[in-house]
Amino acid sequence: MSIDGPCDDDVHLSNRLLNEVKEFLTCCICLEILHKPVVTACGHIFCFWCCHQAMSSYKPSQCPICQRSFTYFPRICKLLHSVLVKAVPEEYSSRNHEIRCMEEEIKLCSPELPMVDSVIPSDSRTRDASTVLDADVLGNSDNNEKDSNNLQPSERDNNDSYRDGEASISTRQGNLTVEDVCCSLCNQLLYHPVVLNCGDVFCEPCLKGQSSKVSKCPSCQAPHSPGFVFVCLEFDKFLNSVFPSEYKNRQSQYPAASIDFTGSPSVEFMSEDLHISVGCDACGMFPMRGDRYRCKDCEEEVGFDLCGSCYSDSSSWIGRFNQKHQPTHRMEQIQSPLSQDDEISE
Amino acid sequence: MLDVSRVQKELVEVAGDKVSGVSIQLLGNSLSHLQGTIDGPSGTPYEGGVFTIDIQLPSSYPFEPPKMRFITKVWHPNISSQNGAICLDILKDQWSPALTLKTALLSLQALLSTPEPKDPQDAVVAEQYLKHNNTFIATARYWTEAFAKRSSIGLHEKIQKIVEMGFSEEAARAALQSSGGDENAALEKLCVG
Ligand SMILES: [Zn+2]
Ligand SMILES: [Zn+2]
Ligand SMILES: [Zn+2]
Ligand SMILES: [Zn+2]
Ligand SMILES: [Zn+2]
Ligand SMILES: [Zn+2]
C-alpha cells in the first residue's frame, strides 16, 4: 500500500464497490441500483416500489424471479439500505432523488430513512470484527493471518477518522466496514444472510440453529409469515466478493453448511373477508384477509390499517408509507365488501 | 406511465448483443411501439429466415406483459397463420416483471424450435403438425422461404411493384418498413387501412 497515494486508493475503492453493487445489488424489475431494498421470504431483493407494484391486490403474489407465492409485503431491509448509502453514496442519492419526484407525482411516500452516511457514536456494544475495508483487503491477498474467531482491525495508515478502539464507521465516501454487515446474533460478518419480513438480517445458521421453521424475529419479535425464509443469495455473493478473507473465515466455521431451499411455502389464502388493495401496516399482509381495522384519525390518503391479530397486539406500529399514526388514534372495524355481496371490482 | 428508463436500458442491452440473433428497433418517437426481429433457429424449418415481431408496450410495462405479434407470416402450431397472434404462457399469465423484451424474443425463438401442439394457437397447423409432420415441415419451410427470407429482390423493386398497384411511393415505403420488408404484409396493411 502506498503511503502517499490515498486518493488513488479511494478512487479504486469506490469504483470497485460500484461494480460490486451493480453486479449483485441491482433490481431485476427497474434494472437500476436497488432503492430502499425489500427482501421476500424466498430471498429475492427488489426496490420498495418495484416490489409493491409487482404485488397483486387481490390474490397471492408471485415472486418475479422464482415464482414462489408470497402474501406479505416485507419491510425495508435497513441494513442493506445503509450498505448502499455507504458503498455508492452518489449513485444512491441520485436514485433517491428520482424516486422522490415520482413519489410526489403519485402522492405516496416510502418510509423515510437516513440518506447520508453519518458518524455513529460508538455504542455500548463492542464488536471484535472491525476490519475496515480498504485497498489492502480488496487488492492484495496478504492478509490471511487473521484468526477465524477474532478478527483483528487491519491497519489503516491514511485515515484519521479511524481510531483504534472507537467506532470504526467513517464518514469517508464509499467506505464500508465489516461492522456494517454484521449479524446481531453472532456479531460477525453475515454468512448466508436471511432477511425476515420485518427487514432484520441474520446468518442462516444463527437463525435456524434450533429449528428450520421461523415464526418470529429474534430481534424485534415481529411475526414472520409464512414460516420459512431462504438465504438472500445475491447479498451473500456481494459479501463474499467485498470481504473475501473475512468471508472465508466465516465459511470455515460452517464446514458442512449447505444452503437449504426446501420447504417451499404452502400459502393458505382464504378469499372470504378479502380486503382488495388493502394491506396491514404492521405485519405487511397484502391483500388483507379476515378482520380489518382502519384508523379514523390518520389523514394520509393511503390510510392506516391493521389486521385482526396486529390490532389485538396493540403495539404502536409504524406505517408502511410514512403515515403519522399514533397509538392514541381511534380505530374502527371495516367489513369486507365481499362478505356482503360477491361483487369484485377489480 | 411507461417506465421509460427501463425500456431504454433494455434497448441498449439488446443493441450491444450481436450473438443472440434478436434485435429491437424503434418505430418512431414513442417507446411504447417497437419492432423486434428474431433469426429462425438452425435445424428447424425456420432456419435462414428473419422474423419480424410487432411489440406494443402497455403503460404498466413491465408489470404487464408486452403485446407481441408476428408480422412475418409463419407456419407454426402456436402462431396464427392468419394474423400472427402468439400463444405463449410468458406473454400471458406467466409473465413476470423480471423478464425482458430480450428474454421474450428469445422465448419466441425457442418456441420456433419446440412447438407445443397441445396448446395451439392455429388448430389447422397443429393438426398437420401432429398427423402429417412431413407435410408440416415442408409447409413451414416453404413459408420461411416465401415470407421470412431477407429478400433477394431489392426494396426498390418491391416499392415499384406496390406503386404499380396504385399506391403512392411514400405509402409503399412506409408499409414495407413497418412490415419488415415483407411485401405481402405491406400490401395487406395498405388494403386494410
Ligand atoms: Zn427496482
Ligand atoms: Zn423469489
Ligand atoms: Zn450470525
Ligand atoms: Zn425484526
Ligand atoms: Zn397484521
Ligand atoms: Zn392513525
From TrEMBL, chain A:
It holds the Pfam family zf-RING_UBOX. PANTHER family: BIFUNCTIONAL APOPTOSIS REGULATOR (PTHR15898). One of its GO terms (molecular function) is zinc ion binding. Residues 27-67, 183-221 form the RING-type domain. InterPro entries: Znf-RING_euk, Znf_RING, Znf_RING/FYVE/PHD, Znf_ZZ, Znf_ZZ_sf. Residues 275-339 form the ZZ-type domain. Keywords: Metal-binding, Zinc, Zinc-finger. SMART domains: RING, ZnF_ZZ. This is E3 ubiquitin-protein ligase PRT1. Residues 133-167, 324-346 are annotated as: Disordered. Gene3D superfamilies: 3.30.60.90, Zinc/RING finger domain, C3HC4 (zinc finger). One of its GO terms (biological process) is proteasome-mediated ubiquitin-dependent protein catabolic process. Residues 143-166 have a biased composition (Basic and acidic residues).
UniProtKB/TrEMBL annotation, chain B:
It comes from the Eukaryota. The keyword Transferase applies. Residues 2-149 form the UBC core domain. InterPro entries: UBA, UBA-like_sf, UBC, UBC27_UBA, UBQ-conjugating_AS, UBQ-conjugating_enzyme/RWD. It is an enzyme of class 2 (transferase). Residues 154-193 form the UBA domain. Keywords: ATP-binding, Nucleotide-binding, Transferase, Ubl conjugation pathway. The active site is at residue 87. Gene3D superfamilies: DNA helicase RuvA subunit, C-terminal domain (1.10.8.10), Ubiquitin Conjugating Enzyme (3.10.110.10). PANTHER family: UBIQUITIN-CONJUGATING ENZYME E2 (PTHR24068). Belongs to the ubiquitin-conjugating enzyme family. This is E2 ubiquitin-conjugating enzyme.
